[in-house]
Amino acid sequence: MLGPKRLELLRELLPSTSTIALLVNPNNPNVRVDAPETEAAANALGRHLEVLTAITDRDLEIAFTTMIERQAGALIVMPDPFLFARREQLVALAARYAVPTIYPFREFAVAGGLMSYGSSLPDQDRQVGIHTGKILKGAKPADLPVMQAVKIELVINLKTAKTLSLTVPITLLGRADEVID
C-alpha cells in the first residue's frame, strides 16, 4: 500500500502535473485495494488518476500510447510479478515516450528507471528465509506472525532525470536511500 506515497513523491518532483497514470495488472488481487487507495490519494491531492491495465506484452505498449493520448504527465507502476519481469521493457517504454515514472522496486531504477519507492527485495527474501527456517525447525506456520516489509527504500536515477530534463528537488534527493549518477 505504498501507492499513495509514490504519488506524493511524483507530486514533489512534478508539482504541476495534474494527470497521472497508474499501471496495474488486473489479475493481481492486490489491485482491488491498491488502486482505489491510490485513486483516493490522487483525489485528495487534486490530481486525476488514469488507471491502465496490462496482462500481456502488447498491453504494455497500448498502455503507454493510451497514457500519451490522455495526456498523463507521469506514471506509477504498481508492484506485480508480471510487471517486474518486464522491467527492462517498461523502462525502455518510459524512456521512448519520455514519461517520468516511479516504480515499486530499486531494480527498475538500476535498469534505468527514473525512481523507485518500495520494499527491498533482498530484505523480503531474508525474511522468507527466516520464516522457512522456523518452519523447518518445527514451528507451525499458523503460529508465526505475519511479516511486513521492514526496509522501504527510495532510489533516484539522476542520469534518467537529466535525460528527461528534470531537476530533482534537493529535499527529494536528501530523502533518497540511493542516488544513481
Structural overview:
The protein is α/β, with parallel strands linked by helices and 181 residues long. The protein has one domain (3-119, 152-180): Response regulator (Rossmann fold), CATH 3.40.50. Helices cover 48% and strands 18% of the residues. It contains nine helices and seven strands; from the N terminus they run αβαβαβααβαβαβααβ. It has a seven-stranded mixed beta sheet with strand order 2-1-3-4-5-6-7, sandwiched between helices. Strand 4, helix 6 and strand 5 form a beta-alpha-beta unit. The two termini are 28 Å apart. The mean pLDDT is 91.
Quick structural gist:
By secondary structure, this protein is of the alpha/beta class. It is built from nine helices and seven strands; from the N terminus they run αβαβαβααβαβαβααβ. The chain has one domain: Rossmann fold.
